Amino acid sequence: MTAPERTTAATPDIPDLSFAVTGVAQERFAAVPTLRFGLDIGSDGVPVRSVSLTVAVRIDVVRRRYDPAEQRALAELFGVAERWGTTLHPLTWTQFTVQVPGFTDDTHVDLVLPCGYDSEIAVTKYLSAVRDGEVPLDFLFSGTVFYTGADGRLLTARVSWSKDATFGLPAELWHELIDRYYPQSPWLRLSRETWGRLAAYRERHVLTGWDETVRGLLDQAGAPAAGDGAATR
Q1: By C-alpha distance, which of 114, 150, 107, 133 is closest to 19?
Q2: What CA–CA distances, in Å, run from 52 to 1, 38, 46, 106, 161?
Q3: 8 Å CB contact between 230 and 224
Q4: CB neighbours (10 Å) of residue 39?
Q5: What is the pTM of this model?
Q6: CB of 57 closer than 8 Å to CB of 94
Q7: CA 14 – CA 71 distance, rounded (Å)
Q8: Helical H runs in 44-92?
């Protein structure tokens, strides 16, 4: 007597996602400077119910060359150019999560990236220094894929940490975006104590604005004008 054959439900394919960043544009009507990147996602033909996608964006600084002016501007971040073989390292820009609706083969989503302008942040210092060519970006993906099993149940799988995409952001586009929101007006972070002292100085000298206040202090200190070699954005 032979044992009855055992039947098992077919195991569905796990979606193997692929990613490609296809373009970038300024978000025209955002409250803060914002870039919008286009992202194509493929599933190799396996139906996907949804994806909770985490996106990390970083600047891979070693993937481009720098002229002497850029090297001088980046010395605060990486030291003198002669040491860049050991001091250059990727700069983390941001990380966020986007919910991707269901699709069968491929889909397109937008990645919205606000661009702060705090001059003390390493990414801002880097982008301010690089005015021409492309900024080499890495997009690193992780998260959870939701899909349907053979028996109709909802199943999940992790997005592999090996999934990534590269993209060249035109440096000029970032500068145009920042100039639209902050024309000729870099931001500077101050401690509360320094801010209080600066405000008291302004009141004591009856100055009309912060630019006039700081300019007066620089004149007193004999600091050179921008055309004489001071750093500018």
Answers
A1: 107
A2: 52, 17, 17, 16, 14
A3: yes
A4: 22
A5: 0.78
A6: yes
A7: 47
A8: 68-73, 75-78, 84-87
pLDDT digits (tens, 9 = 90+) for 41-90: 999 888 999 999 999 999 999 999 999 999 999 999 999 999 999 999 99
d(CA 200, CA 192): 12
Find the length of the chain: 233
Buried b (16+ CB within 10 A) or exposed e, 64-76: eebeeebbebbee
Would you say 136 and 168 are in contact if contact means Cβ atoms under 8 Å apart?
yes
Which pLDDT value is given to residue 187?
61
d(Cα 22, Cα 36) in Å, to the nearest integer? Answer: 11
**Residue 79 burial (CB count, 10 A):** 13
**Dihedral sign for Cα atoms in the order 170, 171, 174, 176:** negative
Weakest-pLDDT range from 120-124, 162-166, 176-180: 120-124
Q: Which of 32, 61, 33, 168 is nearest to 123 (CA)?
A: 61
**φ, ψ dihedrals at 153, nearest 5°:** -75, 155
Token readout for 18 is: 């692929």
* Structural tokens at position 84: 């860049």
